[in-house]
Amino acid sequence: MSDEKNPKSPATTSCAYDRMMPRWGVMETLLGGTESMRNAGETYTPKYSEETEDGYAARLQAAVLLNMVEQTLDTLCGKPFSEPVKPGEDIPAGIVDQILKDVDLQGNNIDVFCRQWFREGMSKAFAHVLVDMPRPAPREDGQPRTLDDDRREGVRPYWVMIKPECVLFARADIIDGVEVLQHIRILEYYTEQDGFAEVEKVRIRVLEPGLVQLWVPVEKKDDEWRLDDEWNTGIDYIPLVTFYADRQGFMEGKPPLLDLAHLNVAHWQSTSDQRNILKVARFPILACEEADENEDSTVVIGPNKVLYGPGKFKYVEHTGAAIEAGRKDLEDLERQMAGYGSEFLKKKPGNQTATARALDSAEATSDLSAMSGVFEDAVAQVLDITADWMRLGTAGGTIEVIKDYDIEELNPAAVEFVKYLREKNDLSRKALIQFAMSHGFLPEDFDEEADWSQIVEEVSNRSELLGEAFSDLDPAQKDKKPGEPGEEDDKTNQNGGETEDES
Question: What's the Cα-to-Cα distance from 401 to each of 88, 104, 377, 446, rounded to whole Å?
């Protein structure tokens, strides 16, 4: 598709889409792993000015991604779904029986689907779900289809998750204080079979209240599309819901892990440099002094070879200073990335208030808890649309996900004070373990007795090793007790040296 804005083409993108694409690009590439980063080439791995194509290709293929973005994303997204999604008692029985066990007609229940939707939204700032309805065949008698026809034939709505980069354009109006979608265009990829071959194709779905259109490319004509099909939906709004993990405007937001992504790219680039310099350092350069560079002579270099030629030969080796600097740079980046995810779990003052205390104070909540609450509202909207499609005549109900995973920000002075008390034997080991567990330093299921048994076993093993080492001492030293002076100490004491009071 052309980058120019063509008012006659359904492929024309919005300004918000153009601003978001670079953010989506870095997130999508990192989540694709090492292979995706290598395929991106110079986008995230710049080529040196004098670097050869072969040298660059070798350096690129040697780089391996430490994917902290994916690790952090999976950890954070796993917390709201550490337990199954809890459907509310207000969800109609028809939706519970027909929809929740397979919400997308692909075998995914509401738990799996919601986790995927939440993860996509958190990685890209927002993500969409379209509640679609199959187009049933017309009745043989020519009469309009009824709700009983749909139920008898098993025709029912299903959910489709749509990545934000597939929504090329969207427009909304404010109606009675509510943002209502008026026009949206979705880029869709699909496959068709041509003989024994599989052919990938593309189309654009245009949605307006009560209307769906499908546009396909005109063959052999760039950026030209033709209307292929259209139909009425029977509902007077666009059945699409957007979950915003971090909203900065209509169809705009900052991916919550975007800063971590840039750190991860910096780590990738530093890793590439570090591996490259290690390769150089491991192979010293052979230099020749006092030789005429214009003299025609061939020098063969390799194992089991003897050098013959003019001048003096010597090896030039790397000092290792750059290697150490690179190692420290990687460690610094890894340390910064490692603590990034915990920021989303710390309670922070916010504008979300409990109803009974709305006029008094704001509750402190973590960023992840706030996102989870917004997500619950988005799922409730999807359930409402589902109920409309099914013509249930009632709201679709609500769901609940886990939101109680906040951690308090710990004062470093408190940690040092507890450490001081323990060192002075003013705090028991049991109390220290309870402190560590309550602040997330140790898992909640930490077994203190099993750990103590392990410590005793390790001390016993060390004692046995020391005993074996002690058996190799000089016979005169075997009976010497710890702290007892040896022969040299006795001589020193006899010559006026000082001895320590063992008490």
Answer: 11, 20, 11, 26
Alpha-carbon span 234 to 136, nearest angstrom: 13
Q: Which two tokens stand for residue 143?
A: 């009469």
- Give the gyration radius of the chain's Cα atoms: 34
Query: pLDDT tens across 80-106, in order?
Result: 998 999 999 999 999 999 999 999 999
Cβ-defined contacts of 392-398 (< 8 Å, 24+):
392/92, 392/94, 392/95, 394/92, 395/90, 396/91, 396/92, 396/95, 397/87, 397/88, 397/89, 397/90, 397/91, 397/92, 397/95, 398/88, 398/90, 398/91
For strand 211-217 and strand 178-194, is the pairing parallel, antiparallel, or unpaired? unpaired
In terms of pLDDT, which residue wins out, 460 or 360?
Answer: 460
Residue 346's pLDDT band (cuts 50, 70, 90): low
The pTM assigned to this predicted structure is 0.71
Separation CA 80–CA 395 (nearest Å): 24
Type and span of the H or E element at 206: strand 197-208
Strands 178-194 and 167-175: antiparallel
- 11/127 Cα distance (integer angstroms): 19
The position carrying tokens 């009824």 is 146
Give rounded-to-5 percent helix, strand, coil for the chain: 40, 20, 40
Return mean pLDDT, the chain.
80
Packing angle of the helix pair 68-78, 15-31 (nearest 10 deg): 100
Percent of the chain clearing pLDDT 70 (strictly above): 73
In one letter, which amino acid is 173? D
Can you give the length of the chain in residues? 503
* pLDDT band, residue 281 (cuts 50/70/90): low
Question: What does the alpha-carbon distance between residue 59 and residue 279 come to, in Å, rounded to a whole number?
Answer: 10
> Which pLDDT belongs to residue 327?
67
- Could you give the count of Cα atoms lying within 13 Å of 268 in the half-sphere of its Cβ? 29
Helices (H), 181-320: 258-282
